[in-house]
Amino acid sequence: MMAAIGAAEQKAKVLLIDKGNKLGRKLAISGGGRCNVTNRLPVDEIIKHIPGNGRFLYSAFSIFSNEDIIRFFENLGIKLKEEDHGRMFPVTDKAQSVVDALISRLKELKVDIKTNSPIQDVHYENGRVKSVELKTGDVYEADSVVVAVGGKSVPHTGSTGDGYAWAQKAGHTITELFPTEVPLTSSENFIKEKMLQGLSLRSVALSVLNPKGKVLITHRMDMIFTHIGISGPAVLRCSQYVVKAMKKWNLKEVVMNLDAIPDMKEEPLFQDVSKKIKEEPKKSIKNLLKGMLPERYLLFLLEQNGIDPSSQGASISNEKIRSFVKACKSFQFKVNGTLPLDKAFVTGGGVSVKEIEPQTMASKLMEGLFFCGEILDIHGYTGGYNITSALVTGRLAGLNAAVSARIV
Ligand SMILES: Cc1cc2nc3c(=O)[nH]c(=O)nc-3n(C[C@H](O)[C@H](O)[C@H](O)COP(=O)(O)OP(=O)(O)OC[C@H]3O[C@@H](n4cnc5c(N)ncnc54)[C@H](O)[C@@H]3O)c2cc1C
To answer: What sequence ranges are listed for the domain RsdA/BaiN/AoA(So)-like insert (predicted)?
Structure first.
């Protein structure tokens, strides 16, 4: 949609073909149905939040940035508001209003829209694009083609990975696809026995460890225990590091470290707990420590460390208190994978960015061919970063597809 608008604004004759019965189905469910259109952090920060080839976007951002996205939508009458971590949402809190605004603009620019029209193939001739062929056999000749068919995640929205074959046919490399921004699975007993299922922890520091126990990445956000493992923002952000670690070291399991009290160091925390016990030695430990952690997690950690939660504080050995405090700061458990690609929020891997012109999104291998959005080997954290990447690359692909078509 963004590419079609960009091209039409350059006065190109544009045909937008989508296989679905409506446009923007994934956008309409993104950001919890509110559409996290973009993010207001400075460009450097945005790039940092796109660990999958974010740096490729520097040139693109210098032409059309997150601030331009904000202006673009405000010009379409979509007022945006900023929430935590710079996340921008429509004030309506409805993703559909963003999709509708894009469709109105497409109509205003008289873009020809064809829905319910799956594309089967893209044809090339003499080193340039020639046409696209629909599943029905209908063929549309074109001087420029922008491939914006997304990745392979959540296929019911239309993104079933069809574009990778068309890119390969043009000579492009598809880097290995993998699920990212995805819940993690675990076969630890406490998960299998659903001891913590449904428990949310706020603002914890969750880390992925390498086989030597060194921290690969830490994310400080919320998380939740599920019936098969862990999920929530901190987990989604850590997920790609788990996938990469499993691949890099050929691991069946990866160790996670959970610090549930990241604002306090271990020793002061131990002193604090000891003081509480000294002040009220006869009180049960679970009541003494009430409020220190969510109750279910507190009871879980006490039991994991061999402490009966109803026992009096003074009756518990110092070693046990120490190991409990250590677990508050560093509870380690193993994860053994992720949900599959179709359940991931985002597809990692895709059309290699080495073969794409960073300022135009043009293929370096085939004249008149452009790529944008999630089909590219670019993946960011949730928080508006993927949508930003799709909108920025879409805008550039559209503008330059129009320019390229004019030259033919
Ligand atoms: C539940 C969910 C929540 C998300 N939340 C966020 C978030 O908060 N922040 C964030 O940054 N990102 C989020 N994302 C990711 C973000 O939505 C995607 O990265 C973004 O939509 C990618 O845009 P795209 O245009 O490249 O692909 P898509 O949005 O997937 O669009 C591809 C389009 O191509 C069409 N198509 C596919 N194959 C064909 C074919 N053969 N012929 C014709 N048409 C075809 C599809 O029908 C579809 O309309 C979320 C994703 C999901 C699933």
So the answer is: 179-346
Sign of the CA dihedral with 241 first, then 244, 248, and 250 last: positive
Residue 170: the pLDDT is 98
Looking at ligand 1, which atom is closest to the CA of residue 161? 38
The pLDDT, as a whole number, for residue 39 is: 95
What phi-psi label fits residue 154: left (phi over 0), alpha (psi between -120 and 50 degrees) or beta?
left
Contacts 24+ apart (CB under 8 A), 122-131: 122/147, 122/166, 122/169, 122/170, 122/369, 124/169, 124/170, 124/366, 124/369, 127/366, 127/367, 128/366, 128/367, 128/368, 128/369, 128/408, 129/366, 129/367, 129/368, 129/369
Percent of all residues in the chain with a pLDDT value above 90, rounded to a whole number = 98
Instruction: Choose one of 38, 116, 345 to mutate for the ligand 1 pocket test, by most ligand atoms within 8 angstroms of C-beta.
Output: 345
3-state secondary structure of 271: helix
Q: What is the pTM of this model?
A: 0.94
pLDDT at 234: 97
Pocket of ligand 1 (CB under 6 A): 17-20, 25-27, 29-31, 36, 118-119, 148-150, 153-154, 157-160, 162, 345-346, 373-374, 382-387, 390
pLDDT category at 367 given cuts 50, 70, 90 is very high
The domain defined by 2-179+347-407 folds into FAD/NAD(P)-binding domain (3.50.50)
Under the banding of pLDDT at 50, 70 and 90, the label for residue 407 is: confident
Q: Which residues contact 71 (CB under 8 A, 6 or more apart)?
A: none
Q: Summarize the confidence of residues 277-303 as an average pLDDT.
A: 97
| Token pair of 39 as six digits | 């993010």
Question: Can you tell me the mean pLDDT for 338-352?
Answer: 97
Give residue limits of the domains in the chain: 2-179+347-407, 183-338
CA dist., res. 70 & res. 91, Å (int): 12
* 202 CA → ligand 1 middle, Å: 29
Residue 177 DSSP code:
P
C-alpha 370/C-alpha 85 separation (Å) is 32
Q: Rounded distance, CA 231 to CA 290, Å?
A: 25
